Amino acid sequence: MNEPNPFELERASVREAFDRAGLRYEAAALLQARVAEELLARLAPFAFAPDVVLDLGAGTGRATRRLKRLYRRACVVALDLSPGMLQQAARHQTLLRRFKRVCADAARLPLVAQSVDVIFSNLMLQWCDPPDEAFAEARRVLKPRGFFAFSTFGPDTLRELRTAWGEDGRTHVNRFLDMHDVGDALMRVGFSEPVLDVERVTVTYQDALTLMRDLKAIGAHNVTAGRARSLTGKNRLRGTLERYETYRRDGRLPATYEVIYGAAWAGRERDEHLSPPGAPPPRMDGGAGLAPAPAGEVRVPLSRIRRRKRS
């Protein structure tokens, strides 16, 4: 019999956590907003003219509103597992910029096959463990030349917090997939060779308790099967805070986030896309198959990157 996976995410707990976080989410989700802006900026050069756009894991709909502004003629759908988040998303609708709201699991999309032109997913896929079912569903609902743009967290995320908790037989921080594992999962379900790159972001805090409160405020606290089911003892928490203090620099405590950005095409032909009639087909880099990169950055296909060694 297989051993139970302590890092397995409990879907009901994920939904409940985000339901509770709905009202406070946007005030605390500053990193999520920053990553969404970067992901939206990566869509702009393609000049897509889609009929249907799906915001997969839309949360409170802040990015959905931006998608509706970017694709004014498209039917934009905000889909999320949490009813509480979608309730907050209603606040981002205006008379001229309305979008659909659908409550559903990313692993079981209530959408017709080959009905979506563009899928946008910002920092949601880390809640799908493993991501294969969500990727398969994204591939299923995308049109043959549809486009999938996403971000997720990599394994260095919250490494300071993970180390500070130490080893006690319990899981205290979620597990995050390596960039290569994400790319492999995309290819397994039939996406064209994905283009992935990584950005490391450090957010600083006055103290570790503030970090923990922020994680709770955005619904990102521990929902793994191996988490402790009782309150953390004072001595245990005190030891964790003391170990975290060893990371203090210039009066602040760092929290590292490894952000993975990805792009993939649903199908292997890239000669026709979603441009307006008569417009030249967009390319990811003028022919080499790479997404546009800001100055000073280089992006390479997954197949050209060596897999990291695991300790």
Gist of the model:
The protein is of the alpha/beta class. 30% of the residues lie in helices and 19% in strands.
Sheet with most strands: strand arrangement: 3-2-1-4-5-7-6
Q: List the secondary-structure elements in sequence, H or E.
A: HHHEHEHEEHEHHEHHE
Proportion in β-strands:
15-25%
Number of strands: 7
Number of helices: 10
At CATH's second level, what is the architecture?
3-Layer(aba) Sandwich
CATH H-tier superfamily = Vaccinia Virus protein VP39
Q: Which percent bin holds the helix content?
A: 25-40%
* Oligomerization state: single chain
Provide the number of structural domains.
1
* Main sheet: strands, sense, barrel: 7 strands, mixed
The CATH first-level class comes to Alpha Beta
Report the structural category: alpha/beta
Distance between the termini: 26 Å
CATH fold group: Rossmann fold
